[in-house]
Every structure is written in structure tokens, then in C-alpha cells.
């Protein structure tokens, strides 16, 4: 079962955000702006001003963010102002244009250059072409030539940004999926493959759970600096911030506690931080998630510490059995699989317990009117088969209670709107179900079709109005949702074997 996180053969075995740091796994930040940022590097003042005016007059979507009088200044301003395009004169005092391009490119290879060159420095321009610079403008330049050069480079910048955005988006989705699978105990071959793709060379990982009120006030900048070169993925889950930390170096419990303490000091005394034990085995990370959740719950209860690991527990097989049954009956497959996984590691009398688990779970669901999974008894030594069975059973529980809730909402809607011309489609939409599925589910839940149930509600209300002797039969007909008094009378008689008039007379006799 055990496969090290950095073991490439793990693929053969059978997840919302991330923040910028020095980690080699992080994606570059993409600058998405409405205007193109341009820096002008030119030693002649009049030339700089003329070029700025030319750009501002001819490009509404270009912003000149700065002007550099020499190569050294261009390097400094490129780092500070983050331009996307630099118009670089080749011949400048001190550091020339080519040297400046080389230095800037080393720091930020995404910046594009347009060379501005006099005829006598064209040889320099050819040298710059070898460095990847594709556009140059000869002095004195023609307006059309300059516009075409800027447009070509702008197009290249936009296309490259689009490619990077697509790659970043794909990476975000993959990271989110990775986290989801860890939290849901879905550590199969595809999860190992995700880890190899996203975090090659991973040496250790662990979970943190942060309880903080109000949670929404936690700012990423408040705690991101404490992770150093370690990568992390985080998600808001219920009222907690869940973080998985992924490192290229081995982490022990002391390192985890040190980070937890830094975060807790940063966030203040109202924050509780539960930690899961660090591991070098991917299949143990779901347990680390559960440990972090248990730890933060324990810390909040005891109140004498604000960070730490979960308390040590000695558990018996029957305790695990009861815990598994309770979690499945609550529809919580994550916790159910956690307890099952804990038991599986040191399982004793496995056959007896698995049989007891299967039959008690089946009995528990049937007593609640919930359909057990139809997959049958899993193979005894098939861990994945058993966890899939527990997940299916938990989902059946959730589906059952969600369906019940939807049916209660549907029935309330009918009782509130029986006097209106409502249809099955109206009620199905209110219950957020398709009409066909709603119709079948409603019949299974109430024992009546939608029309029979609506008719029953309307006629019961009609009886109440008849008993009050305050309304005419025609008024009652309209008050319970019927447009035709004769039709109302026929339906009433069909259900109660008396017409509305006869029913009213019977009441008067009493």
C-alpha cells in the first residue's frame, strides 16, 4: 500500500486557490490589464518625449509607464514598473541597449523589446535579433513603420498572455482536483499521476485546519509569507480554512508545529490551528486531513492551547465499527472512510468485522427507508472496494434526506399556492428537480400522484370553507383554485360521495 510521494513508480498503483512564493511548482503571475505597459529607453530627451507623444496619440490602449535616459536606468525601471514592452535605443552611454536587454531578459523573459537604431548601429540590431528581439525601428522612423512594429509586438504579448492564462487555469483546476481527492480519500492511480505532474520530487506533506472568527477576514498576505519555498493549496470548508502544505524537503512534527505557531501568532488569540502529522506517503494524506480537523476541534474545546496535533487515541475494533456506522448514517463518507482506513491498517478478525459491518449497515439503512448500495458484499481484501461501498452508502443517505427535504418544500409550496393554477412543472421547478424525476419521487414519498395530492389539499380546504358558512359555493370554488363551479362540484362528489350542497346540508343537520 505504501508509496513514497516522490516515487515515480507510484503511477502504477491504483480535490481553491494558491499563492505566489519562491516554490518551483508555482505558476508565474500573469499581469492582466486593460492597457499595454510600455517603457521608453532613449538617451536623447527630445526623442523620448516625441516617442511618448506619438504612442499616446496613436494608441488608446498603451500606457507609457516610464522613461529611462540610459541602460542602467532601463534595467532598474523594468524591475520596478513591470512593463510589457520596452522601446530600447541601442547606443546609450554606460550600459548600452544590448547589455540592458540581456540583463532585463534574465530577470523577466516575458518582456518584449522593440529596438530603436540609427543606420550606423544596424550591426547591433542584427546582433539583437540573435537574442530573440524581433522588431526594430530605424531612425528617423516613419509613422506607419512604428505603428506596425508596435502592433506586431502587442499581438505577440497578448497571444502569449492568453496561452499563459489557459495554462494557469488548467493548473488551478488540477490543483483543486488534487486537494479534493485527498479530502475525499480518493487516492488512486490518477491522484498519484496528478502528484507526479504537479509536484515532482515531493518529499513530505501535511494538512492544517484553521478556525478563525470571522473566517472571511483572513487575508492571504497575512499568512502566505510563513510558507517560504513550500507550496500549498487552500480551501474554505464550512467554517474552517483547510490548507495542504507540500514540500520538496523532509518535514518533521517540530517543523509543522513551528509553522502552526507562526500562523497562530500572526492571526491572534482568536485563531485555532489544528495540524495533521507530516507524511511521505500520498495514501496517508487523507488521514492527515482528518487529523487536522480533529485537532482544531479538540483545541477549541479544551481552550488551553491554540495550535497542535490531535490527541492520541487508543481504539478498539468495535469502536471503529460504531464510528463507521454513525458517519455513514450521517452521510459523511469522508469520516467513515477515515475510520475504516484507521482500522484497516492494523486489522484483526477482519472477516468477522467486515461481515458485521456489511449486515449492520444494510439493516441500519433499511430501517430508515434508505436503499443500500446494490453492489453486494465487496471482496474481503479489496480496500478500494470497501471504501467505494461506504461512499455509495453515504451518498444514498444524503440523497434520501435531500429528497425528503425537497418533497417537504414541494408540499409546502402546494399548501401555500393551492388556490392558484399551479402545475407539476411549477412545483418541480421550486424543488429544483426535473418534472419526470419529481413526479416519480413525489409518488414514492407521499404515496399519491401530484394531481391527487393537490386535489386532496384543495378539497380539504373547501370542506373548511363549507363548514364556516361564510362563503357561497361559487366563491369557494374560486378560493380553492377551480375556475368552473360545475367541475368543482363533480370532483368534490367523486371524493366525498356528496356534492358541496349536500355536504353543507349534512353539516347543518348536525
UniProtKB/TrEMBL annotation:
InterPro entries: CdaR_GGDEF, CheY-like_superfamily, Homeodomain-like_sf, HTH_AraC, HTH_AraC-typ_CS, Sig_transdc_resp-reg_receiver, Tscrpt_reg_AraC-type_HTH. PANTHER family: ARAC-FAMILY TRANSCRIPTIONAL REGULATOR, HTH-TYPE TRANSCRIPTIONAL REGULATOR EXSA. Keywords: DNA-binding, Phosphoprotein, Transcription, Transcription regulation. The modification 4-aspartylphosphate is found at residue 89. CDD domains: REC_YesN-like. Residues 408-506 form the HTH araC/xylS-type domain. Coiled coil: none annotated. Residues 37-154 form the Response regulatory domain. SMART domains: HTH_ARAC, REC. This is Response regulator. Pfam families: GGDEF_2, HTH_18, Response_reg.
Amino acid at each position: 500500500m505504501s508509496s513514497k510521494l516522490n516515487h515515480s513508480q507510484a503511477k502504477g498503483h491504483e480535490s481553491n486557490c494558491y499563492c505566489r512564493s519562491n516554490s518551483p511548482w508555482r505558476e508565474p503571475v500573469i499581469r492582466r490589464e486593460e492597457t499595454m505597459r510600455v517603457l521608453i529607453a532613449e538617451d536623447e530627451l527630445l526623442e523620448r518625449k516625441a516617442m511618448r507623444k506619438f504612442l499616446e496619440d496613436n494608441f488608446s490602449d498603451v500606457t507609457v509607464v516610464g522613461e529611462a535616459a540610459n541602460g542602467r536606468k532601463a534595467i532598474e525601471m523594468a524591475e520596478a514598473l513591470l512593463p510589457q514592452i520596452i522601446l530600447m535605443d541601442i547606443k546609450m552611454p554606460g550600459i548600452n541597449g544590448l547589455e540592458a536587454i540581456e540583463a532585463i531578459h534574465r530577470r523577466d523573459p516575458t518582456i518584449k523589446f522593440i529596438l530603436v537604431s540609427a543606420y550606423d548601429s544596424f550591426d547591433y540590431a542584427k546582433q539583437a535579433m540573435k537574442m530573440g528581439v524581433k522588431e526594430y525601428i530605424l531612425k528617423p522612423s516613419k509613422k506607419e513603420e512604428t505603428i506596425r512594429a508596435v502592433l506586431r509586438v502587442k499581438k505577440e504579448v497578448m497571444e502569449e498572455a492568453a496561452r499563459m492564462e489557459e495554462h494557469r487555469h488548467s493548473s488551478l483546476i488540477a490543483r483543486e482536483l488534487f486537494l479534493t481527492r485527498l479530502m475525499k480519500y480518493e487516492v488512486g492511480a490518477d491522484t498519484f499521476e496528478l502528484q507526479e505532474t504537479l509536484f515532482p520530487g515531493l518529499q513530505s506533506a501535511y494538512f492544517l485546519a484553521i478556525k478563525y472568527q470571522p473566517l472571511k477576514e483572513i487575508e492571504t498576505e497575512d499568512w502566505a509569507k510563513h510558507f517560504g519555498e513550500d507550496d500549498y493549496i487552500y480551501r474554505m470548508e464550512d467554517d474552517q480554512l483547510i490548507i495542504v502544505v507540500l514540500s520538496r524537503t523532509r518535514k518533521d512534527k517540530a517543523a509543522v508545529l513551528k509553522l502552526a505557531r507562526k500562523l497562530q501568532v500572526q492571526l491572534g488569540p482568536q485563531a485555532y490551528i489544528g495540524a495533521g502529522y507530516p507524511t511521505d506517503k500520498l495514501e496517508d494524506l487523507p488521514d492527515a486531513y482528518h487529523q487536522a480537523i480533529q485537532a482544531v476541534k479538540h483545541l477549541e474545546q479544551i481552550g488551553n492551547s491554540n495550535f497542535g496535533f490531535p490527541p492520541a487515541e487508543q481504539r478498539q475494533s468495535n469502536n471503529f465499527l460504531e464510528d463507521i456506522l454513525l458517519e455513514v448514517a450521517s452521510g459523511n463518507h469522508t469520516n467513515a472512510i477515515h475510520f475504516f482506513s484507521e482500522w484497516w491498517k492494523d486489522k484483526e478478525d477482519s472477516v468477522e468485522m467486515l461481515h458485521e459491518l456489511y449486515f449492520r449497515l444494510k439493516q441500519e439503512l433499511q430501517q430508515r427507508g434508505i436503499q443500500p448500495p446494490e453492489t453486494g458484499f465487496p471482496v474481503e481484501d479489496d480496500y478500494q472496494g470497501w471504501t467505494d461501498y461506504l461512499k455509495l452508502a453515504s451518498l444514498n443517505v444524503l440523497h434520501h434526506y435531500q429528497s425528503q427535504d425537497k418533497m417537504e418544500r414541494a408540499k409546502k409550496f402546494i399548501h401555500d399556492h393551492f388556490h392558484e393554477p399551479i402545475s407539476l412543472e411549477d412545483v418541480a421547478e421550486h424543488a429544483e428537480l426535473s418534472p419526470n424525476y419529481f413526479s416519480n419521487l413525489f409518488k414514492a414519498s407521499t404515496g399519491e400522484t401530484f394531481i391527487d395530492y393537490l386535489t386532496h389539499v384543495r378539497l380539504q380546504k373547501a370542506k373548511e370553507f363549507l363548514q364556516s358558512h361564510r362563503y357561497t359555493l361559487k366563491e369557494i370554488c374560486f378560493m380553492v383554485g377551480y375556475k368552473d363551479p360545475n367541475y368543482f362540484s363533480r370532483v368534490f362528489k367523486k371524493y366525498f360521495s356528496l356534492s358541496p350542497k349536500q355536504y353543507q346540508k349534512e353539516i347543518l343537520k348536525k
